[in-house]
Design goal:
The protein is α/β, with parallel strands linked by helices and 323 residues long. The chain has helices spanning 12-18, 55-67, 95-106, 139-156, 170-180, 201-207, 226-239, 253-262, 273-284, 290-304, 314-321; strands at residues 28-34, 41-44, 47-53, 72-77, 111-116, 130-131, 136-137, 160-163, 193-194, 244-247, 267-271, 308-311. The structure holds ligand PBG and zinc ion (ZN). Ligand PBG binds next to helix 6.
């Protein structure tokens, strides 16, 4: 019988030899949500297995991550007090600054990325300062305070800054602020191609960052636009980003491939909260083989062109890889 393709599939070792895509714990960044207090570890109902944690609990979590071979985290802060300009994010004693300092002190070998945005810190839940005349976010006013926020993160000891607010010119602004502040070696991972997506719903429960009016359509990208998605990432590369990102991931595998082919930087993807929640609940209902579908999804990200995967599944993936 003629078996042109099946010959290479008959033996599991041969299948491993010819496998084109691999997933490793090295690929992952694990998101952590920190809030003030101590001894707090609260699970969020929309994301089973994801917790808001006080800093002491986040430090314990890092012990577990390291045991699993995971050495990179991205931090999100939930401040005690929110206001119109997100002051907590600009304060050296705000939640993120405190968390970075404490985590780096306890775990100098963890690579700590900070999400740089204002939606978790503003009382209106938008990603910057509101322009009340146009009922949108004021781009340049937000750039100005973003530079300050970057320096707060840098001084606290962040290893990489990840701006997620989709303001025009943010990379150039942050690069200049960091260079002038003496942080020429601090890399920027840009949320360069971030869509205005319904898949962020569960995250906004965890981060308590749902906009109190309107939506993020005037700054995040239209899911229908492919050429614009490529252009946004090319622009961030030109402005000096060190790593680019496509977010969400699963419904945007084509864009991951497009950005990979049209840029030369390492590419991260954000496997977002809604994607995580869908698998979790389908798994809990017994509708899918959760572990299998999860790994298949991670392979799909890598195959599409991702170098880095930011995912709430990271710990589960690491456990499976370790088996
Ligand atoms: C903040 C931010 C968001 C996410 C990461 N950073 C939410 C948003 O833009 O509303 C989403 C992450 C997720 O859904 O897991 N700008
Ligand atoms: Zn935001």
């Amino acid at each position: 019988m003629f078996q042109r393709f099946r010959r290479n599939r008959l033996n599991p070792h041969l299948r491993a030899l010819v496998r084109e895509t691999h997933v490793s714990t090295d690929d992952f960044v694990y998101p952590l949500f920190v809030r003030p207090g101590s001894g707090i570890k609260t699970e969020v109902s929309s994301m089973p297995g994801v917790f808001q944690m006080s800093i002491d609990e986040a430090i314990k979590e890092c012990d577990e991550l390291k045991r699993l071979g995971l050495f990179s985290i991205i931090l999100f802060g939930i401040p005690e007090v929110k206001d119109a300009v997100g002051s907590d994010a600009l304060c050296e004693h705000g939640i993120i600054a405190e968390a970075v300092r404490a985590i780096k002190k306890a775990h100098p070998d963890m690579f700590v990325v900070t999400d740089l945005c204002f939606c978790e810190y503003t009382d209106h839940g938008h990603c910057g300062i509101i322009d009340h005349v146009h009922e949108t976010v004021d781009n340049d006013a937000t750039l100005e305070i973003s530079g300050k926020q970057a320096l707060v993160h840098a001084k606290a000891g962040a290893d990489m800054i990840a701006p997620s607010g989709m303001m025009d010119g943010i990379i150039e602004t942050l690069r200049t602020a960091l260079d002038e502040g003496g942080y020429e070696n601090l890399p920027i991972m840009s949320y360069s191609t971030k869509f205005s997506s319904g898949y962020y719903g569960p995250f906004r429960d965890v981060a308590e960052s749902t906009p109190s009016f309107g939506d993020r359509g005037s700054y995040q990208m239209d899911p229908a636009n492919r050429r614009e998605a490529i252009n946004e990432s090319i622009a961030d590369e030109a402005q000096g980003a060190d790593i680019l990102m496509v977010k969400p991931a699963l419904a945007y595998l084509d864009i991951i491939r497009d950005v990979k082919e049209n840029t030369k930087l390492p590419l991260a993807i954000y496997n977002v909260s809604g994607e995580y929640a869908m698998l979790k609940y389908a798994g809990e209902k017994g509708l899918i083989d959760y572990d299998r579908v999860m790994m298949e999804t991670m392979i799909a990200f890598k195959r599409a062109g991702a170098d880095i995967i930011i995912s709430y599944h990271a710990k589960e993936v690491a456990k499976l890889l370790g088996k």
